[in-house]
Specification:
The protein is of the alpha/beta class. The protein is built from three helices and five strands, in the order E-E-E-H-E-H-E-H. The relative contact order is 0.25.
């Protein structure tokens, strides 16, 4: 997973600790999304947004919610096939990552 272009990436996270946040095991039930702006191969911005339906379930809501923010890639510890399909329809790439922090993923993909 490499970011070859400028993009906004949403990381499904267990907590709100910026890039030190732990990647959540499940995309839809996480309490936060850490949104990272990547420009020119560098991290240019990091912010947290609360999952508006954390603990709930409304198929299609979160993919559309994140797409509305301009997200082009979503990273989570796990994601169901319906969510993957929703994101795919919206032109958003999904990545399932092992349990780690946003910072650890960023170090592998942008060297930061």
């Amino acid at each position: 997973m490499i970011f070859r272009e400028d993009m906004k990436v949403a990381f499904a996270c267990e907590n709100n600790n910026g890039i030190e946040s732990k990647i959540a095991a499940h995309f839809g039930r996480c309490p936060y999304y850490i949104i990272v702006d990547i420009e020119g191969g560098e991290v240019k911005g990091v912010r947290a947004v609360e999952n508006p339906i954390a603990g709930g379930h409304e198929p299609g809501y979160l993919p559309n919610y994140l797409a509305g923010m301009g997200v082009k890639k979503v990273v989570a510890g796990g994601m169901g096939p319906r969510a993957v399909e929703w994101f795919s329809r919206l032109g958003i790439e999904t990545v399932v990552e092992m349990s780690c922090t946003v910072k650890e993923v960023l170090a592998r993909i942008v060297g930061k």
